[in-house]
Amino acid sequence: MAWLYLVVAGLLEVLWAFTMKQSLGFTKLVPSLVTLVAMIISFWLLSLSMRVLPLGTAYVIWTGIGAIGAFVVGIVVLGEPVTALRVGSAVFILIGLIGLQIASDH
Questions:
Q1: Residue 24 backbone class (left: φ over 0; alpha: ψ -120 to 50; beta: rest)
Q2: Whole-Å CA distances, 40 to 13, 48, 61
Q3: How is the chain split among helix, strand and coil, in percent rounded to 5?
Q4: Backbone angles phi, psi at 57, to 5 degrees
Q5: Nearest CA to 72 among 61, 84, 87, 62?
Q6: What integer best gives the mean pLDDT of the chain?
Q7: pLDDT in tens, 30-39
Q8: Cα 44 to the chain's mean position, in Å?
């Protein structure tokens, strides 16, 4: 269950990062409210996952899901540039996430 909480928390981090961008510095009400609610739930689920998972693993996975997710949303939804360096860097983050998940199972 801890891994499920962590994945959902990471996905909510992607949501709040996106809606924070859409809030234009918290000047738009609906995206601002979605950002705050998603943040609260994301942090809560992260804290639940940390009851079982090591701090370092949980936190890095959570931020990694958020980073990779925001990277993909930026490209797909916001039309941000796709360069070899950006994609390569994201792949390194993904490899690190997989490594941490594998390491926490042993």
A1: left
A2: 10, 12, 18
A3: 80, 0, 20
A4: -65, -50
A5: 87
A6: 94
A7: 999 999 999 9
A8: 14
For residue 28, count other CB atoms closer than 10 A to its CB. 14
Contact 57, 102 (CB under 8 A): no
| Count of CB atoms situated within 10 Å of the CB of 72 | 13
DSSP code of 80? -
Task: Go through 49-66 and write b for each residue having 16 or more CB atoms within 10 A of its CB, e for each that does not.
Answer: bbeebeeebbbbbbebbb
pTM: 0.86
Instruction: Give me 65's structure tokens.
Output: 């899901």
Task: Tokens for 71, please give them.
Answer: 């990277």
Angle, helices 55-76/29-49, rounded to nearest 10 degrees: 150
- Cα(7)–Cα(46) distance, integer angstroms: 9
Residue range 46-81, pLDDT digits in tens = 999 999 998 988 998 899 999 999 999 999 999 999
CA distance 76 to 18: 12
